[in-house]
Amino acid sequence: MTGDPLFHDGVDLVDIGIMGLKVVVAFGFLLVATMFMVWFERKLISDMQNRIGPNVAGPWGLLQTFADGVKFFFKEDLRPENADPLVFRLAPYISAVTAFLSFAIVPVGGVFKDVPGTTGTVNIFGRETFLQVADPPIGILLLLAMSSIAVYGIMLAGWSSGSKYPLIGSVRASAQAISYEAALGMSVVAVVILAGTLSTHDIVARQAGGINTWFLVTSGVIPFIVFLIAATAELNRPPFDLVEAEQELVGGFHTEYSSIRFALFFLAEFMNVITMSAIMVTLFFGGPAGPIFFGLTWFWPTIWFMSKVMVFLFIFVWFRATLPRLRYDQLMDLGWKVLIPLSLFWLMFISLKELRASNDWNWIATYAAAAGGLLLGGTLLITALRAGDRAYQKDSEDA
Predict the structure, then answer these.
(1) Could you tell me the pTM of the whole model?
(2) How much is the pLDDT for 116?
(3) 3-class DSSP state for residue 129?
(4) Spatial CA neighbour of 16 closest among 6, 25, 8, 2
(5) Alpha-carbon gap, residue 314 to 108, rounded angstroms
């Protein structure tokens, strides 16, 4: 929170109250947004598949998610006889809490351009502050840490259930997260290199000059594409939902869960979709930065932010309705053989571009050296992959 001007002159009861208000509003917004996301996904997929979708509970079925939540609260909470009591109860909360903590560092409003002297701050009860719960100087590292910790909720849920099918699902989740965490991290590093900061607020401020300054454009689009694919895999969303794979694992890591504990996993999944969409908007699309009309500086930034997030929510639902599930070998090949090498090579070019700009290097010599390194690295990678394939085929034949 050290980046927030709210705490620059010390901390008093008003500052603590404003901080508590931001936490409550952000948590309430995320819960309500998650409820609407569940309805939005059901309704949009039904439209794509020429079905009606939710239409009974409330107008256009808007209260269907609320009705499902009430049902989960009143269902019997079962625990398997062989389950670990403490870990079995703790796992769902880990998944939900990490999703909220990742959202806490996202700027959702504030003027970043068009008004002289503004730096993305808003005025609440006479105090200047950022319209985000916290702006730690290592915000991006916190994001990556929460992304890594989230898999513990799934892993512990499968292990503590005392059943082999949830355990298989949780092991799949760990392997999938490790495979795509590297590509996700390297695509984020590309943004950090361009921004020169780990603060999410400062990353948005660096993109406030218009579309041509968005890191989507200045990074060359490739880091965003890698991030989108890796994030989809991290979220266990189709076509990467091998963690649940109902036809193989009877439901996956949450097979033994019921009632409100199952609802927490369900809630965490959709909450993570909203959080990851907000992170993509922050890193690549300027966050809440955008034009201000009619002098409504309190209104337009948040509208731009929510509009951009809605586009990504639509894309995630579109993936689910369109793409078939990958085989597990295809999942691993895409992560290790395509996304990670592509991220490494693109990160090298971005680093060289920044070094050339700061040191006034000759661009022909710089990129010639980069092309040579790329050729050498690609040759070594292809050689290693072919050697691995030959070893695998030999072991298969011996078996």
Answers:
(1) 0.87
(2) 47
(3) strand
(4) 6
(5) 19
